[in-house]
Amino acid sequence: MIKGIGIDIIELDRIKNSIEANTRFVDRILTKNEKDLFNQLENHHRKVEFLAGRFAAKEAFAKAAGTGIGKLSFRHIEVLRGVNGAPIITALGYETYRSFISITHSRDYAVAQVVLEVAEL
């Protein structure tokens, strides 16, 4: 049974400006595992896309959960790569739920959509 659906869109320039204005911004958004992936990226634009995608994914997850960011923090939610390279999303306190995620980028935006499903017993 579907618990919720969330979607978020973010401007890449907004993320780029946040990275440049606040050295702690990346640490506020990414978990340690995500930051390891982020630091492996050599291209600055790709880093902006990566961070924007994670930001949008976490906002979308919080919307699907019905809490919004606040009760869930950005660092309670983690987006990694599955075995085939597609993103997988998990969150503290939502281990019994199944989640489905899609992230996309354009020249100016990153968009993520999350479907959160209550696992059948």
Shape: globular
Spans of at least 5 consecutive residues with low confidence: none
Structural class: alpha+beta
Number of helices: 4
The CATH superfamily label reads 4'-phosphopantetheinyl transferase domain
Beta-strand segment tally: 5
User: Order of strands side by side in the largest beta sheet?
Assistant: 1-5-4
Counting structural domains, the number is 1
Mean pLDDT: 94
How large is the share of residues in beta strands? 25-35%
Oligomeric category = single chain
Helical proportion?
25-40%
How far apart lie the N and C ends?
A: 11 Å
Overview of the molecule:
This protein is α+β, with helices and mostly antiparallel strands. It has a single domain (2-118), classed as 4'-phosphopantetheinyl transferase domain (Ribosomal Protein L22, Chain A), CATH 3.90.470. It has four helices and five strands. It has helices at 12-21, 25-29, 32-40, 44-65; strands at residues 2-11, 77-81, 87-91, 97-105, 109-118. The protein has a three-stranded antiparallel beta sheet. Helix 1 (12-21) crosses helix 4. The longest helix has 22 residues, at 44-65. The chain is globular, with a radius of gyration of 14 Å. The model has no long low-confidence stretch (mean pLDDT 94).
